[in-house]
Amino acid sequence: MAQLTLADGSIYHERRGSGPPILFIQGIGVTGSGWGPQVEELSRDFDCISFDNRGIGRSTSATKRLTVVQMAADARALMDEVGWTSAHVVGHSMGGMIAQQLALDAPSRVRSLSLLCTFSRGAEGARLTPWVLWMSLRTRIGSRAARRRAFLEMLYPREYLATVSLDELASSLAPVIGRDLADQPPILMKQLGALSGHDCSARLKALAHIPTLVISATHDPIAAPRYGIRLAELIPGARFLEMPDAAHGVPIQSPELVNRLLREHMQAADQPVSASS
After folding, report:
1. What's the CA gap between 249 and 108, in Å, rounded?
2. Given 14, 72, 201, 205, which residue has the most CB atoms within 10 angstroms?
3. What residues have CB less than 8 Å from 29, skipping those under 6 apart?
4. How would residue 153 be classed by pLDDT, with cut points 50, 70 and 90?
């Protein structure tokens, strides 16, 4: 556990394991602890760093406006702090857009990209559909138990939630998400604004040399699979996979499968390129 001090804030981060480096970048409203199911397993063979984006959890921010470019610079500063010249970069949701921006800003620093439940244009993730407006309202009003259950419906398919105790699931997720699911972090609207205003889709072809894996989930109401398909098409050579029985929370719903896919992708990226290829 450590704190990186910046000119306009600080970044809380945790490091675990040894081996090839992985930088995990989280999305809106979730702290670095959201990568717990991945760090727990992958740290056996990789040097893993997860962190709280500025302004959430144990990280701070003194800026009035938040941008994806700024958060990508934070991630790069963290790599500098720990002495990593390069790393495998994994991002979920808004974290996927931060990962894309990091790769565009410093391509030599990124060994591979794994982009989970994310998009090429931030406006896609911040779109105000009737479902999004209704769910946003439900996570802000009503009893605490009702707000927790509404949050769960953004992470898991309805069929899955019908098989578990919602109260028990919400309780078990609190330390993973980094807060009680009934509460909204103050930085959330700034994060949403940063996401909605970011679009690097026209530049993504420049990432052709970086091995890229794009994972979407069939029942994701936020990052619909069509956005993942488009993202993979914009990065030449990217591989696209769709998880059929999952939603936006696929890294925590199906950690064994996600971890296996990440491991295989990163190990393949680290294989030396033969002279004939």
Report:
1. 30
2. 72
3. 56, 177, 184, 185, 188, 191
4. very high
Q: What is the pLDDT of residues 226-238, one digit of tens each?
A: 999 999 999 999 9
Kind and range of the H or E element at 67?
none
Interval 11-28 mean pLDDT: 97
| Rounded Cα gap, residues 260 and 277, in angstroms | 26
CB 184 within 8 A of CB 192: no
Whole domain around residue 192: which residue ranges? 2-126+186-269
Paired sense of beta strands 110-116 and 212-217, if any: parallel
Give residue for tokens 């950690």: 255
Q: Residues for the chain: how many in total?
A: 277
Q: How far apart are CA 6 and CA 66, in angstroms?
A: 15
Report yes or no on 142 lying in a domain: no
Mean pLDDT estimate for the chain:
94
Number of domains in the chain: 1
72, pLDDT greater than 70: yes
Rounded to 5 degrees, φ, ψ at 198 are -110, 135
